[in-house]
Structure formats: structure tokens, C-alpha cells
Amino acid sequence: MTSDSSLTRFIFDQLPIRGEFTHIGQAWRDILGKHNYPPPLKNMLGELVAAGALIAAMINPKSALTLQIQGSGAISLLVVECTGALKIRATAKWNGEIPHANPAELIGEGSFVITLDARDGSHPYQGIVPLEGDSVAAMLENYMTRSEQIETRLKLAADDACACGMLLQKLPEQESPDEDAWNRANHLAATLTRPELLQLPAMELLHRLYHQENIRVFDAQEIAFECRCSRESVTNILRMLGHDEVRDIIKEQGRVEFLCEFCNERYVFDPVDAEQVFVTTAQQAPASGVKH
Ligand SMILES: [Zn+2]
């Protein structure tokens, strides 16, 4: 694999424990390149990006998972969206200068929201819990335990070059022939340091932690930055806004502009383009489809 952004899954042979490592290089730098994020926010967003990939790797390739941290502090929003095929995008909102403080203080009171969209027309599933914990990993572990009832350990780290993480899960409803295995695996995962997580390849990390266990490793999957905004999706947003509202914006500003928060792509509709959005709708409507 030529990409430096990948995810590696593994299982403990004969034991109800699974795990994943992710190292996101270029895809993370692509996300960072779209905005000028202040340093403390960058680290937290990077950790959430790593977490997003680790959890999305367990869903259907066509589905999309969104992790959102909403807060009342200097950082008001962190959003990561990742598909099961590991196409990832992210964005954040903040207010003024970000002081050097721990993540819980920077976010303040808030909630952790996970949305799973099957993208098959069905209603997305959404889970919300209050924010608890002093790191992105702790907030997410708290979510998994409270909402999903799956014992989960996360180690996350990010810098300007990469966003990395490890996930370890105890599979529910399975008797283990080795009752101590989860404690052992968990304890070893806790010894992983930030430099190790950021610098070592997945196979070295696995060897470093679990060389005494029987582990099965699956082929690494590539992760890429991809935004799914398009002129077509913006056209649909304008249709939802309605003809009158769009005419008002044109009257005030001479054009309609839409900026994608994820990739910074700017979509501009001049008065003619804006009218065209609604002409097409009228032609598609069944009532006006009959022509003499
Ligand atoms: Zn976009």
C-alpha cells in the first residue's frame, strides 16, 4: 500500500476481543489544509478524526458515521464524518483565541452526538450523551459504555503530520475461555505511549503489545479525505430554502453564495443560475409535466 493513511484490524484468536490501529497521514493533512485551525483545536480534531475512522471501519461501506462534540466553551463544535469505505472529512467551530487548557475546559458543557446514516433512505440513527471525561478518547469511551454497552478502550493522538489511534473492544454476549484476557489486553494497551502511537507502524505496535498472544491481522484498508459536497447538493439546499427566500437573497446581495464548511469549496449562483434552480423543479413536477 502506497498510502500513509490506513487502518488495520485484528482479532485475538479464539477470544472475544477485537482491535484496530489507524495511522492517518495525508488524509489528515488534507483536512488541516482546508482551514487555519488554532493548535489546541487541531490536536482534538485530529483525535476525533482517528476515532471516526476506527468506529466507521465497523459499519457498512455505504453507510456514514458522524461524530460530533458540541460545547459551550472556546471550542463550540468538532465534527468528523467517515463512511464505512473510510472516506473522511472534518470541520470545527471556535470562538476567538483558544487558551492552552485541557479539552474538557476548552469545550465546556456539552454533548457527544453519534449519527449513523445507512444512506438507503431510512431514518438515520442518532445517539446523544452528555460530555464526560477530560479527553476525546475518554468522552467517546463514555459514550460507547453508556449508549452502546460495549466495553471499549481508545488511545488517540494527533499532531500536524498525522492522526493516530488504537481501539480495543470486548465483544459482548460471548463467553471467553480465558477470563483474564480482556484485562491483560486492556492493561497492555494502556502502556502505549503517544510517540509510539504517532510513529510506529501497526505491525510494530501489535508486536510491541501482543507478541505473546495469538493474533489474526486483516489486510490494511486505505483512508482518504473526500468531501461529498457538489453543485447538485447545494442546488437541493436552495430548493429547500424556497423560491421566495432565494429571490430575497438575490435582491439583497446580487447572488447566492454557499461555502462548504468541510472543504472550503465556494458555490456561487448568479441571478440567472438561481432562477434556473426553480425552473428545473417546475418542469419535473407532475402537474406541469403535461405539454400540449
Ligand atoms: Zn465540501
Structure write-up:
The protein has 292 residues and is of the alpha+beta class. It folds into two domains: 5-225, Hsp33 domain; 231-287, HSP33 redox switch-like (CBS domain Like). The chain is 36% helix and 29% strand. It is built from ten helices and 14 strands. The protein has helices at 26-32, 39-56, 103-107, 136-148, 181-190, 194-199, 202-210, 231-241, 243-253, 271-284; strands at 5-12, 17-24, 64-71, 75-83, 87-94, 110-117, 125-130, 152-158, 163-170, 215-217, 221-222, 224-225, 256-259, 266-269. The strands form three sheets. Strands 1, 2, 8, 9, 10 and 11 form a six-stranded antiparallel sheet that branches. A hairpin with a 7-residue loop joins β6 and β7 (125-130). 32% of the residues are buried. The model is unreliable at 287-292 (pLDDT under 50). Zinc ion binds next to loops.
